[in-house]
Amino acid sequence: MGDGRGVSMQTSMQTYTDAFAAASASGGSAPAWLTGLRRRAHDEFVATGFPTTRNEDWHFTSVTPIAERTFKTPKVGTGAASVTDALALAAGESGWPRAVFVNGRFDSALSALGALGKDIRVATLPDALTEGPDWVANHLGSLAAFDKQAFTAFNTAFVNDGLVVRVPKNVKAPAPLHIIHVADASAAGCVIHPRLLVVVDANAELAIVESFVSTGSAEYLTNAVAEVRIGEGARVHHYKVQRESAEAFHVGTLQAHQSRGSLFHSFSYATGAALSRTNIYTKLAGEGAEARLNGLYLVDGTQHVDHQTFVEHIAPNCSSRELYKGILDGASHGVFNGKVFVDPEAQKTDGKQTNHALLLSPQARVDTKPQLEIFADDVKCTHGATVGRLDAIALFYMKSRGIGADAARALLTYAFAAEVLETVEIDSLKDALEAIAFQRFTNQVQR
Amino acid sequence: MLSISALHANAGDKPILKGISLTVNPGEVHAIMGPNGSGKSTLAQVIAGHPGYEVTGGSITYMNQDLLELDPEERAQQGVFLAFQYPVEIPGVTNAYFLRSAYNEIRKAKGEEEVDPMEFLDLMEKKLKLVDMDPAMLHRSVNAGFSGGEKKRNEILQMAVLEPKLAILDETDSGLDIDALRIVADGVNALKRPDNATIVVTHYQRLLNYIVPDFVHVLAGGKIVKSGGKELALELEQRGYEWVMDAA
Lengths: 447, 248
Description:
Helix content of chain A: 25-40%
CATH architecture of the largest domain in chain B: 3-Layer(aba) Sandwich
Oligomer: heterodimer
Largest sheet of chain B: 6 strands, mixed
CATH superfamily of the largest domain in chain B: P-loop containing nucleotide triphosphate hydrolases
């Protein structure tokens, strides 16, 4: 193998296979559909292995640091996060209904789901399996395909805890659902596989804020999978706030499926982790559906942050809008890969993808790769990307008005981010993310 | 207030200013005129501290200190103001936030208390009237999408808020129609006080009908080739620049 990780990778694969066998032997109560799903996923994971940079989808992101380590399964009940720690980091309102997972395990003491109202069904995955509603069996694993997708297969093989949410038709969630994944010191050396299934029926609406936070600086792997099924005319907003520990690895995949006239609005905010990859995929399967995918990442040091989006235009008259911005300092590395596929049936598709990166240091680097595959003839699809530095003349203009060099740099950097932060529709969340961003720029320029 | 002596400055390797000397006292209005490429704008930008120019000789003394030793923000905090020929657009930063930041930085430098957003808006009300500007402009991004006239008025608004001791207007008249010109000139005149000074850099005499100078200097080839009173501007208007340059 070109990257010389063959031996350690085989060792880690064997360990995961052993762990899978042990989990299968002890977890006897799972329904047959689930054990079958896990088995297929496990086999796929072993057969595919972690991707290398020869894989087109991972060309700019080497997951060797993940592949060469062997992550353990976290022990049950070792979490010791306090609710204040978690909430303070998670950028949400304390009054929102929340589900808190500590090192991958649902923590009922820290969670409070009552404010979601009685119309909306929400349960942990183990509870849902005990009750056994058909919709969970029908939908779990139905969107997040794991064929040749090692990380999704890895998650699915070990799927255990997680959250399932169903919003019945015409119901509008009274407040955002806040899902908080906390990793504390005892997550060190472990892999956490968060799982989320969301089914929003016709003309219903739900906003989810999913925060990934850490109380310390442990090295661990978060490997999250979310499936979001959006019914006709339904609206789903998903905000992901990735603030993992500086030593952590994070891979997160969200796969949405949109019916006629639906809206999927995604915002990915990434500041944490040594190495992170966020996949936001949506399939516009019904006519007149709309996807808005936005994101902002802020990295420094030797952080590596990668976003991949995939918008599949299957039905006609759908629109997609993507705006991603990155701010990179130190020797950090950013990657944006935006794929748009337009099916021959998807006439009158209106797609626009924009990606801008701001480099604050000479060592920072960004790779952008738009990929448009268009098989319909009556479509409008554009993409644009820029990589720039702070404008010296704008800095001088601010200084000439008495604004100090540090403040001028912070203000210009903040201004760069402002456009995409404006797309956050929850005011308190926008304010919180702005504050985190602003604080970070100020620290950066003072260093 | 300002004493420039034998100033030389380069843009890259190219000498632009080749020995400029000029003294400006409180209460005075100086006009600097000259053909394109004479170094007028360079002089204005060097005084403000533009990073694109290197001073290779001579000195600038401002309020008894070596101005060239000060960073651009320190110059501004001590009362130097340049109205840009091409005001810079800053999408994402509102005019109000920008102006308040600048105002507070300058207050801090003077040892005064910062003002909060509400106090600042009260202050702005008067200043906006001075340049006949719609308050809605405060909530738009700095100069972004402004017309040429709006940008120039915005410069004068900044000047009105920051109350400089030494204001330099760099081709503030370029691209303005007669009404906008009058508004800008009225704003500048309203801000004039016995203890501050103004340098008006312009290619045309037109602006000087509204902002009447005490002294007129003709810059050509990086040097001041002629100085005189306000009548010199009129003479330049009638006869062009050729004769001064020939005489020099």
